[in-house]
């Protein structure tokens, strides 16, 4: 049925006030933070909440070692340092990720080498990795993007063949599983973000996991000024053995995350229920492609990505990106908070186009670096096509339920029943969200 769209001045589909915020903060969370304040120990390398969180997360992931940090970015750097990456080394990174994945490599004066994505999973494509491996390559960073684990068996086999380390960027994938094993236990080292948007939120924070004691110790040095751990009761010598930073978390965060961890599986279950409902219903709308999830793994849906196929429904005369913008703007006006999560490949960012991270062209001008490295965004066509055709939805998190998801589906039907009214209008074929707010 033809209806006046909200973007044209009609009533919007999703009622105001129905969408809830994330994270869910309970009295247990408040009590956990209050416990820290009453105890009076609010920081420290061996603070009780930190030690307990590390033990609990290691057990949850099924690994021997865990290190809590102050951010996910710090945890990434600790992993790269932990596996022994040195100046001039090359590290394989997906072209689609948050740029901190590549930044962690630069922090070691090493060189990120980008690989295009699989068009179905949006994760790094194992079939494209080996062509990027050189005699300088030392590691592969896989990103379980949006909460879907990568093709780890294939990637680990490639790494074993070439003597490379595998680091999991599991910032989105708390509790996700691949062939019965949890993210965080699928490579040599792994990291998780505890940013307030994540499935396991802590405001800010990070977690490092590994089964290798040497990698763990190097990561710990990186997070503690490069100083070795001093046995309890001994005097700290203030003697740095290597480069390190202060990446320690605060106890209030540790306590809050421990409290949230008790509900992680339940919250993930609700996300999956919301996502499964959307996938089932949106699959019925021609031209809409919900996330693809292989049967051998679980998706924890930190983000729900929706792809459009205008050619399939007779709109091949419109640029895919123009079609996507028109649909995205119309859905946003209806009350569906769809948005972009990045808009071009990481190697297209200015730091890689200028090839200057620290000044004087470093680390690419470093004498240990290989010559001839260049970054051309057009070398990653699948990443570019994904950006042109898709947008994301965050609000499937556990605070929200099927009632809201049903309104989202209703809004999709309303927009797709009236496509001719918007997709040919140049006014809607561009970012206009700010004008709609």
TrEMBL record:
<keyword id="KW-0663">Pyridoxal phosphate</keyword>
<protein>
    <submittedName>
        <fullName>DegT/DnrJ/EryC1/StrS family aminotransferase</fullName>
    </submittedName>
</protein>
<comment type="similarity">
    <text>Belongs to the DegT/DnrJ/EryC1 family.</text>
</comment>
<dbReference type="GO" id="GO:0000271">
    <property type="term" value="P:polysaccharide biosynthetic process"/>
</dbReference>
<dbReference type="InterPro" id="IPR015421">
    <property type="entry name" value="PyrdxlP-dep_Trfase_major"/>
</dbReference>
<dbReference type="Pfam" id="PF01041">
    <property type="entry name" value="DegT_DnrJ_EryC1"/>
</dbReference>
<dbReference type="InterPro" id="IPR015424">
    <property type="entry name" value="PyrdxlP-dep_Trfase"/>
</dbReference>
<dbReference type="GO" id="GO:0008483">
    <property type="term" value="F:transaminase activity"/>
</dbReference>
<dbReference type="InterPro" id="IPR015422">
    <property type="entry name" value="PyrdxlP-dep_Trfase_small"/>
</dbReference>
<dbReference type="InterPro" id="IPR000653">
    <property type="entry name" value="DegT/StrS_aminotransferase"/>
</dbReference>
<keyword id="KW-0808">Transferase</keyword>
<dbReference type="GO" id="GO:0030170">
    <property type="term" value="F:pyridoxal phosphate binding"/>
</dbReference>
<keyword id="KW-0032">Aminotransferase</keyword>
């Amino acid at each position: 049925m033809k209806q006046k769209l909200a973007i044209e001045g009609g009533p919007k589909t999703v009622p105001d006030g129905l969408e809830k915020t994330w994270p869910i903060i309970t009295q247990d969370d408040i009590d956990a933070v209050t416990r820290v304040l009453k105890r009076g120990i609010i920081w420290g390398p061996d603070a009780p909440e930190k030690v307990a969180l590390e033990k609990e997360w290691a057990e949850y992931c099924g690994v021997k070692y865990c290190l809590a940090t102050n951010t996910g970015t710090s945890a990434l750097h600790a992993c790269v340092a932990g596996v022994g990456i040195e100046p001039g080394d090359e590290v394989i990174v997906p072209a689609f990720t948050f740029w901190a994945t590549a930044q962690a490599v630069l922090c070691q004066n090493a060189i990120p080498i980008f690989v295009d994505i699989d068009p179905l999973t949006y994760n790094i494509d194992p079939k494209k990795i080996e062509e990027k491996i050189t005699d300088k390559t030392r590691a592969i960073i896989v990103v379980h993007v949006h909460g879907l684990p990568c093709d780890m068996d294939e990637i680990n086999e490639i790494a074993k063949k070439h003597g490379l380390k595998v680091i999991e960027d599991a910032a989105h994938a708390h509790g996700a599983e691949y062939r019965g094993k949890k993210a965080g236990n699928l490579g040599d080292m792994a990291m998780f973000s505890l940013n307030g948007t994540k499935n396991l939120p802590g405001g800010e924070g990070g977690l490092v996991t590994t089964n290798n004691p040497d990698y763990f110790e190097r990561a710990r040095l990186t997070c503690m000024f490069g100083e070795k751990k001093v046995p309890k009761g001994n005097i700290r010598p203030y003697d740095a053995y290597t480069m390190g930073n202060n990446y320690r978390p605060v106890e209030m965060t540790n306590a809050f995350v421990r409290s949230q961890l008790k509900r992680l599986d339940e919250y993930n279950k609700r996300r999956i229920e919301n996502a499964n409902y959307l996938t089932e219903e949106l699959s019925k709308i021609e031209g809409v492609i919900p996330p693809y999830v292989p049967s051998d793994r679980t998706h924890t849906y930190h983000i729900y990505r929706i792809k459009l196929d205008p050619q399939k429904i007779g709109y091949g005369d419109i640029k895919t990106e123009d079609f996507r913008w028109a649909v995205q703007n119309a859905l946003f006006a209806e009350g569906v908070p769809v948005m972009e999560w990045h808009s071009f490949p990481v190697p297209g960012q200015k730091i890689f186009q200028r090839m200057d991270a620290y000044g004087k062209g470093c680390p690419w001008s470093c004498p240990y670096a290989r010559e001839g490295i260049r970054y051309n965004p057009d070398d990653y066509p699948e990443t570019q096509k994904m950006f042109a055709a898709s947008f994301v939805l965050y609000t499937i998190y556990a605070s929200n339920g099927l009632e809201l998801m049903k309104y989202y589906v209703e809004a999709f039907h309303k927009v797709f029943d009236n496509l001719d009214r918007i997709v040919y209008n140049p006014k809607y074929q561009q970012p206009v969200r700010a004008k709609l707010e």
